[in-house]
Amino acid sequence: MSADPFSDILKLTHAQSLVTGGFTAGGTWALRFPAPDKIKFFAVVKGHCWVRIEGEPEPARFETGDVGLLSAHRWSILSSDPEAEPVDAMGLFSGAGRSSAQLGDGSEFAHIGGHVLLDPVSGPLLLNALPPWIHVRASAPQAPVFRWLLDHLMEERTQAQPGAQLAAAQLAQLLFIQILRAHLGTSGPLVAGWLRALSEPRIAPALRAMHDDPARSWHLEELASACAMSRTTFASHFKAVAGIPPLGYLTEWRMRLAERALGEDDTPVALVAQSLGYSSESAFSNAFKRVTGSSPTAYRQALRAGAGRAAVELPGREAVPQES
Q1: Residue 314 — pLDDT band, cuts 50, 70, 90?
Q2: Looking at the domain assignment, is residue 115 inside a domain?
Q3: Residue where a domain stops, chosen among 186, 212, 230
Q4: Which of 19, 53, 218, 234 is 20 to 30 A (C-alpha) from 316?
């Protein structure tokens, strides 16, 4: 099977990573960044700093090669000294087209940062599965890959070669994927959910099967057999890892695909239902309403009425418009 559930979800949510700026520093310094309305990532490419995140009891020390990802609506302070008085980062970066800054002589520290755009409708599928923030250390097994990506990102930003903007965007996308991979591989036990399910090799064959052919009328016995487990053991383990039963996961994934289909074109609801394995439009409509809270027709109408103004809700904050 060629299905890759992780890639499927990243594509469905239209996760798009962009490098937006960076700064260098020397001496004593501290910058306070406002709570982001998008997923934010940053990396230390030279030197070290302290990172304080709103709600966290202690600041974290970031060394060269360390990468952070902030998915919650929380302010953060980066500094050379946790006791230093911070200045407003937005004031430092203000000005048309300004994406870099220097504090002091800029000789001791270098930072690069960016954000991840998500589809306003499907984005929460990824966003709500992430912890408030992730710290990937340069000592992690993925360190060589991070070092290569950061070196090339800095090169693309400073040398202004043809195609630099596109190259930087592709490298940023790889950086985001590597952050998620590192989180899955080194964070210890995750809360039950699809993100944990993707990191569980025992149920991976079942996930690949459902993503490879979501329209198929899968039976629990078939999925259990693919994972070399008994029906009872498989059902129990899948629910413990994913948070929902196997066929419940299949229904959820079908509805995510249905949301995308309803939002992208004028395909009749009956054909959307058929493409996802439902024998009748009414059966599909009932399942869709049970999962999303609205009928397929009402959902499509609401999307069109609110085009460009759909809201993505970040953990710990009110829903806000999200770029697409």
Answers
A1: very low
A2: yes
A3: 186
A4: 19
